[in-house]
Amino acid sequence: MSRPAIIADVAEARSPGARNPRARGPAEAQQHRRAGRPRLRPASNTAVQPREEILRAAAELFAGQGLAATTTRQIAERVGIRQASLYYYFSGKDEILLELLTQSVRPSLRVAATLEARCGDDPAAGLYALALIDVRTLTRAPHNIATLYLLPEVQGEEFASFRAEHAELQATYGRLGRAAAAPGGSLDEELTATLIMQLVESVIQLRRLGELRDGYAHEIAASCLRLIGLHFPAVARARAAAEALLLAIPVAPGPLPTGHFRDHGAGVEVVSSRVTGHGEAGDRRRPRARAGTRPRLILAPFPVPPGPGET
Fold it and tell me: How many Å apart are CA 52 and CA 89, to the nearest integer?
């Protein structure tokens, strides 16, 4: 190597940018940035972020073989990344499960606060709407992850935040149910909350058995009102009010168990998402909001059956 070339190399090595990449300009930093470790195999869907891929893979493994039998190595192999790369996103499988469980509760809990605040004069409509939203949340949970609610591990301190959110959602059901109950109802608030939550979460078992059908969301919501002593006319009124209420509450896009989105000026394209025998959405198209609009939940009509002796 010539003497001028050697001098030039030494000068570059002593420059501030060589020792501190932050001192370089954006273009130069991009050239010197160290490449990340390559995947073991290409991503199956480049539009999905690695964190989401990890959650999906873990949900499938957790639901199929349980938490104890699943290792981070298995999750990483399912995604196609190195085990060490997984720890960039999560500290371990407990944190992954916590995220999955939280995703099965938090969307409903966020809407619950809005519904409770808006439905002081019509708690029956708030209860009906919350049941619909919660069924939707549980139906969208990947690989029916809510089946793991009763795992012994989920009772540990690591999952305390999930249990707290789940308990708050159940308490909201109790407050709405007690406020909407027919006069003379004998159920106290705590028992009302427990029974309504069990009704709504029956969708978990229906998914597991492959028996979830179109219209069950409305049947479950109606059953919640029947539980607290409301009869057909009151249930029908609550349903109509709930549908109007949900039109005014922006929610994240995604298919409902009822399987229909309609364009009522809310900027949502028509899609269909029927539930298969395996409890997963058969048509995975999603509604797309037009520019300047926010997706809103549109519920398909489903008749509420009258009770015995009702016309």
Answer: 10
Vertex 122: Cα angle to 183 and 187 (nearest 5): 35
Total domains in the chain come to: 2
Residues 252 and 118 in one domain: yes
Cβ neighbors of 1 (< 8 A, separation 6 or more) are none
CA distances from 103 to 98, 145, 199, 234 (A): 9, 10, 20, 32
Which pLDDT tens digit goes with each residue over 247-289? 988 665 444 333 332 322 222 222 223 233 333 333 333 333 3
Q: Could you tell me if 234 and 169 lie in one domain?
A: yes
Whole-model pTM: value is 0.69
Distances (CA, A) of 130 to 35, 162, 251, 260: 47, 19, 12, 18
- Whole domain around residue 58: which residue ranges? 50-99
